[in-house]
Amino acid sequence: MQKTCSTLTQHNRSGWLFALPGFGLMMLFIVVPFVFAIVFSMTNQRLISPNPTQFVGLENYRQLLSVNSLVLAPEMTDTGEIKRDNQGDITYPRIRSYTRNNPDYAHLQGMKEWFAWQWSDQKVVVLASDPVFMKAVVNTFLFVLVVAPLQGALALALALLINQRLKGINIYRAIYFMPVVVSIVVVSILWRFIYDGQNGLLNNLLHTLSFGHFVPVDWLGNPNTALGSIMVMSIWQAVGFHMVIWLSGLQTISPTLYEAAKIEGASGWQTFRYVTWPGLKNTAILVLIVITMQAFALFAQIDVMTNGGPLDSTQTIVFQAVERGYGKQDISGGSAISVVLFILVLSISLLQRYFTREKH
To answer: What is the pTM of this model?
Structure first.
């Protein structure tokens, strides 16, 4: 008995010794930088500044996340009528008159317009201390909500197609997986040429298919199409990786289950619903989490293809963190964005874990 315990102790020590370098690297490159990010986010630290660093508490977070609203009544003429411009649109007071040195609206000091809409004769304006960051948050969540389900579903469809014993099927597997092994920077440059507004491959193809009726679109230069174009490219680039994960899950399902379904006369949809999908439950959770984490880390495509433009339509949280931390040398602002991103990702991961947990 003592000999068995001694052997187990030696095995445990060996295991910890093998794991020690991994733990050390994790502490060095993940835990320590994150601690520094929390510390710097509560200061006014800049990369190069003659001023000493000061503790500012949660001021950086307030600057990032403060949002307010303002309802503007239309301007009136001396006769009591609503003023209109040359185009016939209702005119409203300038927002700067409320957000710049106005003691009656001190809570709006320094804020800028994020977006607005018309409500009857009034104009409702949503203000933010940092509208660019708020746009980045919205764009990031929009990217996650669109890419995660589409990429996961497309990867599953491809996995089902190539999970067959057909001659030459490995060639198709290699073709579908090939974009994954190519650098995302190279892929982004390639797709930038495809999306070119003048002589891009996509415009030329659509022009040919429409027999010359298609009007060329500047896919990356138009705020209405830039983010969607990057979504399409991102789905194409990473779908092969998630296809392999789905494929590994498919191959863990016992063939006897499919044989039993065939004997019972189940249709293709019934087989998928009652045999394939239940067997892929754990795989689906993994794919969903991986895609979500990758989507929140969106940076390289933005940096190479649009640099956050046009008109901030492709700003993302990670791009903002890098742009401020290194581009503007605002270490405190970049650190605060990193902490906000961590909290968002952690919260969503916990929600995913909660909703996908096994219910007893």
So the answer is: 0.88
Cα separation, 143 vs 234, in Å, equals 10
Cα–Cα distance measured from residue 224 to residue 190, given in angstroms and rounded to the nearest whole number? 21
Spatial neighbors of 73 by CB under 8 A, at least 6 apart, are 92, 121, 122
Which string of DSSP letters, residue by residue, matches 10-74?
HHHHHHHHHHHHHHHHHIIIIIHHHHHHHHHTTB---SS-SSPP-B-TTHHHHHHH-EEEEEEPP
Strands 122-128 and 67-72: antiparallel
Q: Residue 175 corresponds to which amino acid?
A: I
Round to whole Å and give the CA distance between 75 and 25.
Answer: 62
Quickly tell me which residue has 């399902």 as its tokens.
253
Tens digit of each residue's pLDDT (9 = 90 or more) over 66-121: 999 999 999 988 888 888 888 888 899 999 999 998 998 999 999 999 999 988 88
Contact 140, 319 (CB under 8 A): no
User: pLDDT band for position 198 (50/70/90)?
Assistant: confident
Distance CA 247, CA 173 (A): 10
Full DSSP string of 268-285 = HHHHIIIIIHHHTHHHHH
Whole-number Å distance between alpha carbons of 152 and 288 = 7
Contact indicator for 239, 149 with CB cutoff of 8 Å: no
pLDDT band at 173 (very low <50, low <70, confident <90, very high): confident
Handedness of CA 7, 27, 183, 292 (dihedral sign): positive
CB of 134 within 8 A of CB of 67? yes
Please enumerate in sequence order all residues whose Cβ is within 8 A of that of 191, keeping only pairs 6 or more positions apart, or say none.
229, 233, 305
Check residue 78 and give its pLDDT. 82
- Check: CB of residue 301 under 8 Å from CB of residue 225: no
Asked if 294 contacts 348 with a C-beta cutoff of 8 angstroms, the reply is no
C-beta separation of 241 from 177 below 8 A: yes
Give the C-alpha distances (Å, rounded to integers) separating 66 from 40, 117, 127, 248, 354. Answer: 20, 19, 8, 45, 29
Angle between the N-to-C axes of helices 169-181 and 131-162, in degrees from 0 to 180, rounded to the nearest 10 = 160
Q: How many CA atoms lie within 13 A of 6 on its CB side?
A: 3
